[in-house]
Request: fold
Amino acid sequence: MSDDEFRGLRRAADYQFGGGGGTALFAGSDALDVTHTSSGRPRQIHTADGRVATYGDDGRFRLGLAGGSRLLDAFDAPRHRVVVGDESEPFIREGRNAFAKFVQSADSALRPGDEALVVHADGYLLAVGRAELPGSGMDDFETGMAVKVRQGAED
Reply:
């Protein structure tokens, strides 16, 4: 991976996840394995821990569990987090969606379509996915999907 490509990926992550997102996801270009599309665009970013992210056609990252873990370690709560309790933990861990009824709290800055880290109330990562509701209202809704889970911790 070239230095220009590495800087571009970090810049895009900083834009999407806020300051420090690029550093958190891509802490060291030597350990990254980047696959490219036939046109040469970066597509999948892997490390020894697993898939960090997929770089979509729209210029946004879709987090893998390894990337979610890196963001969880780098950012203080509640940034990018949706917190659930014991009742829904086994289902979310398996990769099922997180429903608003079970959300205890969420980052109020989350918007529908943003990447979200689904964490247990004790602070450990259960899944990564796409927010379907605004974070400011997730714990207010009684019905509906809060996070469309892309990958659970046991997938």
Summary: Helices lie at 3-17, 21-25, 65-74, 89-93, 135-138.
